[in-house]
Amino acid sequence: MQKKALGRGLDALFERSLPEGTADAASSGRFLDLAVENIIPNRYQPRRVFKEPELRELAASLKGSGVLQPVIVRPAEGGRFELIAGERRWRAAKLAGLQKIPAVLHEASDAEAVELALIENVQRQDLNPIETAKAYRRLIEEFHLTQEDVAKRVGKERSSVANTLRLLNLAPELQEAIASDRLSMGHAKVLLSLTGLQPQLRLARQILQKELSVRAAESLVKRWSTTSQKRVPKTDATLAEVEERLMRYLGTRVRIALAKEGGQIAIRYHGPADLNRLLELILK
To answer: In the prediction, which pLDDT does 18 show?
Structure first.
């Protein structure tokens, strides 16, 4: 019965909730006014990006009207409460300097906490596609759900869940471009139609540099498919395979340039932390 409630979304929690202080109120389902400082973030929160301008805008609104929709929490150690859903409201409340926030207490397992956080964000369209894909993967790998199970929980078609999960097969820098909305889901589908990281990166570079539409990207792939066999010498095909193996291992773009004697390998990194990660992989 509880799983069905989760599948119906967050509204099911509020239908079962009872006002605090009634004779029939159980520990789960109670409405509470909790101290903001007594709440801790959801360790299973699928959302990783909280945009500061949006939080400040929401905080300004909360200063005037307060928090109208309660967050959902579960008991945590030390008499505190862990967020299940509503972390954006909680962060904005802290930013606004509010001392208390309305909450619904819900007894939830770890799996249910993930599901409810995911459901809220998906229903509100708060997650970017990569965050959604990682949340789906977490439900499948850590809590042993099938793609069909995930689809039922979040109210999506199984094919939609499968297509979203495929985004995680792309190179990290392509995932980053999708997460930051520089590449659309339509572009992602075109990229996934190509086999191998090197062709995908090549197409992505052209999409970004030339600001290609999805249709233009599809046309480019068709032209490539009819001419690639004629244009690519054997040595280039071998280099492309080596580049792909290196990119898969290092998780970043790798370019190999031939010279008369030898050549050079160029490895891209995205800051000091990424450089240290690459050095550990290369030197281990």
So the answer is: 35
Secondary structure (H, E, C), the chain: CHHHHHHCCCHHHHHHCECCCCCCCCCCCEEEEEEHHHEECCCCCCCCCCCHHHHHHHHHHHHHHCCCCCEEEEECHHHCEEEEECHHHHHHHHHHCCCEEEEEECCCCHHHHHHHHHHHHHHCCCCCHHHHHHHHHHHHHHHCCCHHHHHHHHCCCHHHHHHHHHHHHCCHHHHHHHHCCCCCHHHHHHHHCCCCHHHHHHHHHHHHHHCCCHHHHHHHHHHHHHHHHHHCCHHHHHHHHHHHHHHHHHCCCEEEEECCCCEEEEECCCCHHHHHHHHHHHHC
pLDDT, tens digit (0-9, with 9 covering 90-100), for 75-101: 888 888 998 888 888 888 888 888 888
Same domain? For 97 and 185 the reply is no
CATH number at residue 34: 3.90.1530.10
Domain count, the chain: 3
Q: Do the domain assignments include residue 144?
A: no
Asked if residue 74 and residue 15 are part of one domain, the reply reads yes
Catalytic option among 52, 87, 241, 244: 87
Q: Give the pTM.
A: 0.57
Tell me the mean pLDDT in the region 40-62. Answer: 73
- Asked whether residue 144 carries a pLDDT value surpassing 50, the answer given is yes
Residue 112 among the catalytic residues: no
Of 69, 98, 127, at which residue does a domain stop? 127
